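Deliverable D5.2: sample structural annotation.
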Amino acid sequence: MSPPGNDQRTERNQPTQNQTRINNQIRISPIRVISEEGEQLGVISTEQALNRARDIGLDLVEVAPNEKPPVCRIMDFGKYKYEKSKKRAGQSASHHGKTKEIRLRPKTGEHDIGFKVKQAVGFLQHKDKVQVSVIFRGREMAHVEEGRRVMENVVKILLEFGKLESNPQQMGKRMICTIAPK
């Protein structure tokens, strides 16, 4: 025999937090009923609402269980579940921002910088972060100020489309700066 308070029959009939009660699972009476066209039928007994739903060939679905009296709707439950799952799948398919990188050198030409900036603007508009890297090779390390000038020009243009996440900083032979979308 099971311990008191652990009645298995009532546990089976009780819906979980995200389970919707339908048809005979709705035990409360009276209920507020909305027809299949969306018009209010008023507060009627659960038995009358179930009979009306069966006559039409649809289900009685509890849509607002916490209201007084609970609100139920006459609808096709299979279609309702399908649309709910499609909506949930659409929400989870949102874009997860990635970090894209554009690499420059202190001696990169103006046209090439313009092309890279145009790419970076596209990344920012697509909700991706952009990491701007100025890479120094060999004797270019003696002219860090030239690389800083290139970085400042690029950042100034990109700030129209994004916000500065990390300031330009020197890390070995690279100068790195991150810009996040607005």
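Annotation notes: The first helix runs from residue 8 to 13. The first strand starts at residue 31 and ends at 34.
The annotation will be released with the project's public dataset once the embargo ends.
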